[in-house]
Design goal:
The complex is a heterodimer of chains A (306) and B (287).
Chain A: H1 2-16, H2 18-41, H3 54-57, H4 64-71, H5 74-93, H6 95-105, H7 110-121, H8 128-138, H9 144-150, H10 163-191, H11 195-203, H12 208-219, H13 221-232, H14 240-246, H15 252-255, H16 258-268, H17 272-301
Chain B: H1 8-35, H2 39-44, H3 58-65, H4 67-98, H5 106-118, H6 123-132, H7 150-161, H8 165-173, H9 178-189, H10 191-207, H11 210-215, H12 224-241, H13 251-286
Helix pairs in contact in B: 1-13, 3-13, 4-7, 4-10, 4-12, 7-10, 7-13, 8-9, 10-13, 12-13
Classes of the chains: A mainly alpha (306), B mainly alpha (287).
Chain lengths: 306, 287
Amino acid sequence: MKKESYAARLWQNIKKHKSLYLMIIPIVLYYLIFCYYPMYGAQIAFRDYSPKKGIVGSPWAGFRHFRDFFNSVFFGRLIRNTLSINLKNLIFGFPAPIIFALLLNEMRWMKCKRVIQTVSYMPHFISTVVISGMVLQFTATDGFITQIMTLFGYPKQNLMLNPALFQPIYVISDIWQGVGWGSIIYISAVAGINSELYEAARMDGANRFKQMLHVTLPGILPTIITMFVMRVGNMMNLGFEKIILLYNSSIYETADVISTFVYRKGLVDQSYSFSTAVGLFNSAINLLLLFTANKLCKRLTDYSLW
Amino acid sequence: MKKNKTDLFDIVNLLILLAVALVTLYPFLYVVFASLSDPVALMANSSLLFKPIGFSLGAYGKVFQNPSIYRGYFNTIFYVVVGTGVNILATCVAAYVLSRKQFMLRRFFTLMFIFTMYFSGGLIPSYLLVKDLGLINSRFALILPAAVSTFNLMIMITGFEGIPQSLEESARIDGAGDWTILFRIVMPLAKPTIMVILLYYAVGHWNSWFHAMIYLRDADKMPLQIFLRDILTRSQLGAMTGQTDVEDVGQTIKYATIIVSTVPILCIYPFIQKHFVKGVMIGAVKE
């Protein structure tokens, strides 16, 4: 009964606002074709896809591709690298913009502050290709970072051939590129803090450093938690393009992550079904992380993404 | 608060921030100095650069003699202009409909679009779709699959929702249809928000390379970033792994190429950064 009345109301709505419905058709088609059809196509993870037979025509393979992946020699290495790079990025890369924003907030000389901010945004506007090219140049045998490293006892040799150095280089270059841009959101959060809180803290004899720790930092905590959830929920997909540009076969041991493996297996070796299975596994983990982080956030702050 | 005298805290803070700014800036300065250096002198040099060693413009001459850089620039401009045009049109139409309170399926479609931000079919199914559509090696492969960014769409909806309904109603009384209202009233009033997402889209197209690498085949359709990748990372790889079939390009030429391809962005970003900053804020509010 209720359903019928909904359909009737919808029909009335369509008749009344025909042009709105016509306008949205191309957009809905776009989403159906370019976003939802690939989700339907992801079923080739459970088939032995061959381009000639098409998606539905290819024979079923069950969970064989997933089993192959879990049993493959690369499985442990890929999980280890994906987790290790992301955790390093989280531990060092996440607090960096927060600290930068706190320090900037304490800066007195406005002109100088503005110049430092503008300079710090600059790397964000440079393309991944150029950033990666610069990193490769600087860490080549005669690059200037390699030269500096020789002072610390490293051999004068291309740093990108040393498996122990890939992850630090990757994380440091990420921080270098993102610290200024990432601080914007925190700077705007700081601007929203009630200035009476600072007055009160000063009355209590708190110096500037203590005010920063006990007023500013708690004031932006909700923003920090939100950003943390978003970051964790995106973990499995981060940095894939940059790793493809930076790595080479001699450092796969520490540089190869799930998403780069999907790219190599799927588009270079053309094992479509196998790499779709690996990609689906990656998406599932990512979704799980997002839900967990969101739930945790809801419990901690009463705030959630949905 | 401002009455306090400058104390040790301020000095230390200033020094730290200046150090951060310097570390951010130095790699770019190094690239500038190296690109202007004499190639032989640069090879022999083994320390930081604080000015070009043995000034030479030869590398820039070589870069400008290379026809691929013009082709790359031309293609990139094409993708940025056409791609961003499609993006803005599609995003504005979608945001207009989804911000109309009288549109009954508003919530349904909004959720349907948002879902794609958190889950996707993945790289291979998307690639196979583009292949099955016959878009491989077509310029449309860089434009159609990226027609709408859901994140930008959400920013746009927030922008359109901020426009008073009364304006729309009075236009409707005057006989204006939805298209007229969108183009004549809503879009002009939402110009600041449109500016923000226009810049997001444009910079995205300018910097994009991965789709060009997997979808395009012909060298004469490749954007600048692919050309840059070939010069900056491929030849490096050849030198590292000892392959001789990949020709190594001189150091100074690489640095000059970075400068030539990056200077347009570096020149305009100080002027447009405030729009981007605004985008970060709107995005944050929406989230």
